[in-house]
Specification:
2 domains; transferase; pyridoxal phosphate; PyrdxlP-dep_Trfase; pyridoxal phosphate binding
Length: 157
Amino acid sequence: MSKKITFDYWEHLYSNRTENMFSSEIRDLLSLSARPDIISFAGGLPEVRALSFQKLERYIKRILKADGDISLQYGGSDGYYPLRTKLIEVMKLEGLDVVEEDIITTTGGQQALDLLAKVFINTGDTIIVESPAYTGALNSFKSYEAKIIEIPVDDMV
């Protein structure tokens, strides 16, 4: 009788939720970005050849001069305070009555999706998404043990 080979000695300690975690398709898509002959927006990355490095350098210098001590540190989980206060100003111009506690900024769309999934999805909930769908959202929903139903969309939508 052969002995089972264990590749991960800690696997028995993992939560059941990890059974729904898979290697990200986004990681596979991002590998295409390394090819110089391909411009791929699939991973949500900008095309760096289209960026103005002179402008970017100017903005970085401006930020370092104004807020160097803050901009080079980890920020709070609720986001960059000056940005949050500016968002409140803009929202008030739009007629929305908001206060600082109403605003959270994220590091990107994926973090926002994951936070929403964490707050609203219970194990076994059914989520209806369009197909094709953003794989980052699908992976996040699956990690919270949701049942996903994909509804195909066509050019008329």
